[in-house]
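pipeline: protein-struct stage 2 | run 1193 | Phosphoribosyltransferase
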Amino acid sequence: MLLDLVLPRECGGCGAPATRWCPTCACALAVSSDHPVVITPRLDPGVPVLSLGRYAGPRRAAILAMKEHGRTDLIGPLSVAVGAAVTRLLDWGIVEAPLTVVPAPTKWTSARRRGGDPVTAIARAAAGAHVGVDPALRLRAFTRDSVGLTPDQRVRNVAGRVLLRHAVPGEVLLLDDVVTTGATGSEAVRVLQTAGSRVAAMLAIAHA
């Protein structure tokens, strides 16, 4: 195809040619029967934190390609994994329907550069019956990117900088792409709970 000459196709997980997402990477991202797993980030948000897997291999490559290289075609396979994980959490009774997925906040400048917030796009693509999506959180202006910050710097960077657009009633699941120290998630949970939301858990596509 002419489009492939301009934008050559390669797997977003391993770089294999002639495909956007290869069967091997799809298998690596598939949610097994014992996932998502409970993790313990450095900062405890006070709710269960679960992850689909380590921030490595095809998972890491896909997240980076989506966020930093505009690979919006990877929202699909990532949303399949998130949707399976949400179903698993409902089956396990960790969250209950009706459920609202709230994406973790991102810088508006980053979202604009990426053509929108990819975590919100994943949440919307993954939402099924009795699961809604509400991007109710935002970051205050001039919040720094967390990449390259030490754990203590990450905490200071988001303290008081997660803002709530409006209250979110009912059961809430906080969704993030990568959990490193848990600083953003902890602040997001605090803000939601202060406004009266019932945050049941936090789900990450990957954890460092």
